[in-house]
Amino acid sequence: MLAGWPIDEGHLLELWPHSRTAEGRLRWLYRLTRCNRTVFSATDITSPVGTVVSTSALISSATTALRFLTLRPGDTDAGYFDAYTRTQITWRDRFAEELSLYAQEDACGYCGRQHSSPGCGVG
Question: What pTM was computed for the model?
C-alpha cells in the first residue's frame, strides 16, 4: 500500500510499509519531494507494536514523519542536523516552518485546518 500526501503546491510526502522491527513495529519508508525532487527519504519512522496497515496508520505515520522533517534549530539539539545535506538545510530554512502547520495535533493532513483528516473534502 502506498500513500501520497500532496501537502501543498510543491510538496509531496509518500509512505510505504517497509518491514517489521524485531518487536513487531511497522517500519515505514517515506519520501518527501519538492517539485518532484527528493529532499528526504528514509525508513526511520515506526508505528506502535502490532499496527496494521490502515488509513489511520498511514495518516499517523505521515504526520509523525512531517513533524520530524520540519524541526528547526531550537526545536531539538543542534546535533540533530549534523547529517543533513546542504540541500536539506536549505529546504529546512525555507519551508520547514510553513509546512510544520500541517503536522500539528488535530490539523487536517490534507488542508491544514483544524479537523480530522480522513477523506477531507475540506472539512
Answer: 0.81
pLDDT category at 43 given cuts 50, 70, 90 is very high
Q: How many domains does the chain have?
A: 1
Report which secondary-structure segment, H or E, holds 72: none
Domain assignment present for 14: yes
| Residue 112, domain member (yes or no) | no
- Output the CA–CA distances (angstroms, integers) from residue 43 to 4, 93, 98, in the order listed: 16, 23, 24
10 assigned to some structural domain: yes
Q: From CA 32, how far away is CA 105, in angstroms rounded?
A: 20
Half-sphere exposure of 16 (CA within 13 A, CB side): 7
Domain range enclosing 34: 3-103
